[in-house]
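Hey, I was hoping to borrow your eyes for a little while. No rush at all, and the record is pasted right below:
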Amino acid sequence: MGDRSRGEIESEIKEALGLVPHFFCGIPDDLLAYEWELFKRFELDETLIPNKYKELMGIALHSETKCRYCTLFHTEAARIFGASEEEIQEAVHYAKHSLGWSAYLNGIREDYDDFAQELGQIKGYLSSQG
C-alpha cells in the first residue's frame, strides 16, 4: 500500500462512495491501494470513454457473463452517469445481437481471412458513400 495504511485508503473510499463496500474488505492489504486506484480510474474518473458509455459497455458485457452483481452495478452506475432506460435496453439488445452473430459465425466456421477481406471491401464501400 506504499505509505498509506488500510485505514487511510478506506477513508478515501468512504469519502468517494459514502461507505466502504463490503467487496473491498476482503482485498489483501498489499493490493487494496492498487485495486482502489483502478476502481477510481475506471469507475469514477473520466477517461477517453465517457463514464455513461463505459457503464453501458459493462451492462452489455455482463448481460453475457450473467454476473448479477456486475449487471446491477453497471446498470445503476449507467443511470448515475445519465443513461436513459432506453439506452440501457439498447445496450442489452446490442449484446444479444452481437453475441448471436458471434455464435453463428463461429458455429459455421466462417473462414476468417475471407471475412476480413469482405469486411475491408464493405469498409471501403461505406467510406466512399459518406
Q: What stands out?
A: DSSP finds seven helices and no strands in the chain.
